[in-house]
Structure formats: C-alpha cells, structure tokens
Amino acid sequence: MIKLYALSTCPWCKKAKQLLTDKGASFTAVDVDLLSGNEQEQALQEIDKIVDKRSFPILVIDDKVIQGYQEEKILEAIGHGK
Q1: What predicted TM-score, i.e. pTM, was given to this entire model?
Q2: Is the residue at 44 inside a domain?
Q3: What is 41-78 written as a DSSP string?
Q4: Total structural domains within the chain
Q5: From the CB of residue 76, how many other CB atoms can be counted at a distance below 10 Å?
Q6: Residue 21 counted as domain residue
Q7: Tens digits of per-residue pLDDT, 29-59?
Q8: Using 50, 70 and 90 to split pLDDT, how confident is the model at 82?
Q9: What's the number of CA atoms in the CB half-sphere (13 Å) around residue 25?
Q10: How far out from the chain centre does Cα 77 lie?
Q11: What letter does residue 79 receive in the DSSP assignment?
C-alpha cells in the first residue's frame, strides 16, 4: 500500500508521482491543496500524525514514511533498490 501526500504545484511531488508511475507501483495520490473543507483538514491531521513538519511530498509505503523526494529510499521501499 503506497499513499502519496502531495501539493499540485510542487515539482518534487510531480517527480515522486512520475517515479512511482514509471516503476509500475500502484499508489494513491492525495493533492492536499486541491482538497476542500473537511477533506483537507482530515488529510492534514493524517499528515501531522506521521511527520513532525509538513514538507511535501510525503510517501507512506507500508509502514515506512519517506518525506521529501528521496529517490533511492523510495526505490528501495518499493522493491526497486540496489
């Protein structure tokens, strides 16, 4: 299970989406800035539970959290590492 919290305007978030797509990973992307009202508040509460500081992208891969675009860590977490 892969969940990606992103901002629609964030270039690093777009790179993370593209990397997952290129590797054929099945994932759910949540563009937090495009949510409204309660949906956005709920997403932000979920994010605050898993990270100390909001910095996008945030990937939750199984029970592992990767914050920021860290290609090697992402690849390793989805089984495409070295």
Answers
A1: 0.93
A2: yes
A3: HHHHHHHHHH-SS--S-EEEETTEEEES--HHHHHHHT
A4: 1
A5: 15
A6: yes
A7: 999 999 999 999 999 999 999 999 999 999 9
A8: low
A9: 26
A10: 12
A11: T
Can you give the residue range of the structural domain that contains 22? 2-58
Domain CATH for 40: 3.40.30.10
Q: Do residues 30 and 6 touch, judged by C-beta distance below 8 A?
A: yes
What the block records as the tokens of 65 is 């959290």
CB 41, CB 47: distance < 8 Å: no
Q: Are 73 and 65 in contact (CB under 8 A)?
A: no
29 and 2 Cβ atoms separated by less than 8 Å: no
Convert 11-27 into a string of H (helix), E (strand) and C (coil). Answer: HHHHHHHHHHHHCCCCC
Q: Do the Cβ atoms of 66 and 74 come closer than 8 Å?
A: yes
Residue 71 falls within a domain, yes or no? Answer: no
Cβ 55 vs Cβ 67: under 8 Å: yes
